[in-house]
């Protein structure tokens, strides 16, 4: 089946499309996973849209910290939407084929949104670092202009650094196999089908992961080490508790995101014995954080909870009672 969709490229053959097979080893019943994945996707869309509407509606939330949260919501929607519609189409309509152009575009978008999420977490860590370690200078350092500049710099960094990923993948020669044992176009999943040498693809993929996500993760945890050191110096237990509570929701999301990144990377080593594990974790890592992030912030941030109540008219109803 891998040679059914080929076009002549000089004296050689070049496949014209890829086939996304879904979850390896469970092709016969993988459609049953579509319901929980669809529910997670709808939850991610609904929760993040609610965050955006609430921040826009409530003037008290027009602050840099919530602007960053709104940008994270946009990135989460983009990440989930990049992969979930195609996965559901595979499960529900058996729409497994994807053109090379669409595949490389999805490859670029997935990497871009994932690195953007990491970059926004770094910006949020810097925000919390300044708020706790330099509270008197916070309003002059972390401004709307600051948010715009760091967001644009992250978009520029990720947009440019990720361009070589699909470009290098497109330069490979796919002469025989076109079946990807995955639900999405992952870099290694696509390039492993190439008939020529993919050393440069693997090297750039590894270098990108270490340079972007690795450096972000290092800076995030360095920020929190400085925050913890500063908090421990506070004499008041109440001040310590308040400082930690402002970071708790952000720290929860950071730990989940980077732990998941590490787990996904490690499980790729066991992918030959249990190929479904890295594939499933890769998909879940693209849809669970977008669904989880708004709920963690909604549960742990009083200002957002009040904003939700006002948005739905609950605050006025409760005050009348």
From TrEMBL:
Domain G-protein coupled receptors family 1 profile: 47-297
Gene3D superfamilies in alphabetical order: Rhodopsin 7-helix transmembrane proteins (1.20.1070.10)
Residues spanning the membrane: 32-55, 67-93, 105-126, 146-169, 207-228, 249-270
One Pfam family per UniProt: 7tm_4
Record keyword Transmembrane helix present: yes
SMART domains reported in the protein's UniProt record: 7TM_GPCR_Srsx
Subcellular location: Membrane
Gene Ontology CC: one annotated term: plasma membrane
Membrane topology: Multi-pass membrane protein
The keyword Membrane is annotated on this UniProt entry: yes
Keyword list, A-Z: G-protein coupled receptor, Membrane, Olfaction, Receptor, Sensory transduction, Transducer, Transmembrane, Transmembrane helix
InterPro entries assigned to the protein according to its UniProt record, in alphabetical order: GPCR_Rhodpsn, GPCR_Rhodpsn_7TM, Olfact_rcpt, OR51/52/56-like
Entry's Gene Ontology BP terms: cellular response to lipid
GO molecular function: G protein-coupled receptor activity; olfactory receptor activity
PANTHER family, per database record: OLFACTORY RECEPTOR 56B1-RELATED, OLFACTORY RECEPTOR 56B34-RELATED
Function: Putative odorant or sperm cell receptor.
Protein name per the record: G-protein coupled receptors family 1 profile domain-containing protein
């Amino acid at each position: 089946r891998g040679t059914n969709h080929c076009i002549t490229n000089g004296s050689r053959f070049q496949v014209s499309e890829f086939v996304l097979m879904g979850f390896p080893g469970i092709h016969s019943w993988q459609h049953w996973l579509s319901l929980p994945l669809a529910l997670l996707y709808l939850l991610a869309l609904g929760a993040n849209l609610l965050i955006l509407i609430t921040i826009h509606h409530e003037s008290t939330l027009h602050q840099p910290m919530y602007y960053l949260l709104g940008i994270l919501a946009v990135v989460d929607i983009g990440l989930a939407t990049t992969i979930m519609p195609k996965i559901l189409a595979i499960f529900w309509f058996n729409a497994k084929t994807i053109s090379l152009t669409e595949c490389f575009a999805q490859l670029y978008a997935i990497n871009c949104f994932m690195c953007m999420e990491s970059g926004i977490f770094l910006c949020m860590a810097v925000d919390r670092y300044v708020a706790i370690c330099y509270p008197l200078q916070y309003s002059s350092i972390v401004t709307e202009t600051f948010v715009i500049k760091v967001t644009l710099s992250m978009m520029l960094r990720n947009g440019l650094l990720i361009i070589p990923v699909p470009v290098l993948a497109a330069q490979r020669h796919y002469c025989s196999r076109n079946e990807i044992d995955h639900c999405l176009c992952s870099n290694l999943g696509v390039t492993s089908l190439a008939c020529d040498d993919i050393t440069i693809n693997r090297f750039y993929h590894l270098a990108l992961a270490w340079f972007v996500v690795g450096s972000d993760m290092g800076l995030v945890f360095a920020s929190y080490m400085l925050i913890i050191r500063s908090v421990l110096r506070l004499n008041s237990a109440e001040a310590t508790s308040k400082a930690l509570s402002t970071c708790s929701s952000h720290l929860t999301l950071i730990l989940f995101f980077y732990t998941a990144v590490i787990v996904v990377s490690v499980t790729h080593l066991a992918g030959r014995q249990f190929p479904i594990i890295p594939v499933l974790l890769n998909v879940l890592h693209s849809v669970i954080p977008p669904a989880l992030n708004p709920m963690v912030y909604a549960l742990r941030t009083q200002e957002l909870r009040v904003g939700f109540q006002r948005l739905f008219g609950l605050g006025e109803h409760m005050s009348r009672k």
